[in-house]
Amino acid sequence: MKNVFIVSSTYGGERLGLQILAQISKDAGMETFFYALDSMEEENLINVICDIKPDIISYSAMTYEHTQIHGLNDKLKKRISFISIFGGPHYTFNPEEIEKNEHMDVLCVGEGDTAFKTFLERIKTNSDFRQVSNLIVRQDKTLYKNKVAPLIEDLDELPFADRGLIPLDKKGNRFLGNYCSFMISRGCPYQCTYCFNSAYNEIYRASKKKVRWRSIPNVIAEMKKIKQEKGIDYILLADDAVNFLPKEYIMEFCQRYKAEIALPFTAQFRPNLIDEETVKALKEAGMICANCGVETGDEEVANKMLKRGITNSQIKNAFRILNKYKIKNYSQNVIGLPVENPVENAMKTIRLNIECKVNYAHFTLLVPFPKTPIEAYCRENGYLPESVQDLKPSVFIKTTLKYKKEKYIRGINNLHKFSSIAVRFPFFLPLILLLIKLPENIFFQYIYFLWHGFYRTVILNEGKLSFSLLLNGLKQISGYLKQYK
Ligand code: B12
Ligand code: SF4
Fold first, then answer.
1. At what angle do helices 467-483 and 442-454 cross, to 10 degrees?
2. Which one of 3.40.1550.10, 3.40.50.1010, 3.40.50.970, 3.40.50.280 gives the CATH number of domain 2-145?
3. Apex CA 251: angle with CA 250 and CA 253, to 5°?
4. How far is the CA of 240 from the centre of ligand 2 (A)?
5. pTM (2 decimals)?
6. At what angle do helices 312-324 and 276-285 cross, to 10 degrees?
7. 119-173: per-residue pLDDT in tens?
8. What's the topology of domain 167-483?
9. Is 90's C-beta closer than 6 angstroms to any atom of ligand 1?
10. What separation in Å is there between the alpha carbon of 219 and the centre of ligand 1?
11. Which of 125, 222, 230, 472 is the most exposed place for a label (fewest CB within 10 A)?
C-alpha cells in the first residue's frame, strides 16, 4: 500500500514530528512518499500524486498552512480516490475543521504516533478504524469522535525519525551546514499566553507528566547512527528548552555526548532556568550556540499579559553566563503586542537586549494564533475584532493588530525591520527612530531579511560571505514576499 505525506513547506529544515510518523509508515510496510507544496507547481504535484495512486494521503499543518493544504486535498479528491488524514498543531487546536470540510476523512488531535500506527494497521488489515483514540473519523456522513489518549510516557518506544524522505541537500541548511535536528524531550510546563502550550496542556489535563524525556542511551544511539550514516558535522537540539531536563540528566548526557558524539551543537534555553554549572558542562560537551526567549523587555507585560513567569534580572543573568563562557547566543523577541503604544513597548525590548549584550537578537511580530489566550485578549480588547484565521499573517512582515493611532502601525512595522540592527549597533538608534516615521516600504523589508540571513549564516554559523550566498538570499526573500503580496 502507498502513503504520501504532504506539508506546505519544510522551511529548509526538518519536521521531526512528521519524520517519526514517516518511520512508523515505513515500519508498517507502506511505500512512503513525501512532498512539500512549495517544492513544485501545484498542478505538477497533483499529477505526480495521481500517478502514485496512493491509498492514504497524510497531511501535516501548522495554522495558516492549512488553507493551501485543504485546497490541494479538494483538488486531489476530485481526481483520485484515497483516505485523507490530517494532523499537526492546526488540527489539534481546531478539530472542528473536519466538520466544515467534507473532503477530510480523518483528523488527529494531539500526539499522533500511536493513533497513526493503529490507523495504518487497521487499513492494512481492512478493519474498522472508527474507534481509534485521538482520531475523528468521517464515514458514511457520520463523524466518529474518539477520546484523546494520555501523552506517551516512554518516548524510547518511538522509532527514530526518518532521515531519508525530506530532501536536505548535502550542504544542509543555509544557516547550519550539514546538520540534523534531534529532540530529547517533549512538552513544556509553562503557559505563555501567545504559545500553544497552555491549550495543549489543557487537552492533556489528565496526563500528569507534561514534560517527558528519552533515556540517554536512546538519544546517543540515534545521534551515533545519524552521524555515521549522514556524516553530519553539526547538531541542533530542537527541544523547546533543553533546561527543562533535570540537571543530573544534562550532566550525564554531556559526558556521554563528549565521549561518543563530539559534534558542535546549538540548544534552546528558558533564561530563568539557566545556571552556570550546566552551561559550563554543555560548553565542554560541544555547545557553541544558544537560543533564549527574551520575548519582551517590559516586565509587567511579560508577566501579566504574556504570563512568562520571568524577570529581567533572570534574563540578564542568563546572557551574562552565556557570554562568560563565550557561547554564541541569540534571543527570540516578540513585538507588536496588544498595548496602547507598541513602539514604546518594543523599545524596552531592544534596550533589554542591548543591556544583555545579546550577539544576535531576532524580532518577530506577534501573530495571535487561534485558541491561544493572547488571541482572546486581543479580541476582547479591540485589537483584533475578528479571528485572523482567514488572513495569511506573517511574523516577519506586518502586524495583524489594530492600533488606535496610524503612526503606531507604521512605527511598529518599520521598527521591526531595524530592531535587530539597533541591538547590534545601538548608536544607530537615533537614526532608526527617524527612519521608522517614513512610509512602510519594501526596501526596509529587504534590509530585515538580509541582516537576518547575514548575521545567522556568516557571524553565528561562520559561513563564508560570497556573491552566490547573497544572490541565493535575495532569491529566497523575493520568493517569500511573493506569497504575501
Ligand atoms: C521545530 C518547530 C518549527 C520548525 C519546523 C516545523 C515543524 N512543525 O516541525 C520551523 C522552524 C520550520 C517552524 C516554523 C514556524 N513555527 Co514552529 N515549531 C516548532 C516546534 C518548536 C517543534 C515542532 C516539533 O517537532 N514538535 C514535536 C513533534 C513530535 O510534534 P508535532 O510536529 O506537532 O507532530 C506531532 C503531532 O502534531 C501529530 N502530527 C503532526 N502531523 C501529523 C500528520 C498526521 C497525518 C497525523 C496523523 C498526526 C500528525 O503527530 C506528531 C507526532 O506526535 C513547535 C513547538 C512544539 N513543541 O511542537 C513549534 C510550532 C509548531 N510552531 C509554531 C509556529 C506558529 C511557527 C511559525 C508559523 C511562526 C513562528 N513561531 O516562527 C513558523 C512557520 C514558518 C515560517 N513562516 O517560517 C506553532 C504552531 C501553532 C499552530 N497553531 O499552528 C508551534 C506549535 C509553537 C508555538 N509557539 O505555539 N517551527
Ligand atoms: S516556555 Fe516556550 S514553549 Fe513553553 S509555553 Fe512559553 S513559549 Fe511556549
1. 130
2. 3.40.50.280
3. 60
4. 7
5. 0.93
6. 40
7. 999 999 999 999 999 999 999 889 999 999 999 999 999 999 999 888 665 555 5
8. pyruvate-formate lyase- activating enzyme (3.80.30)
9. yes
10. 21
11. 125
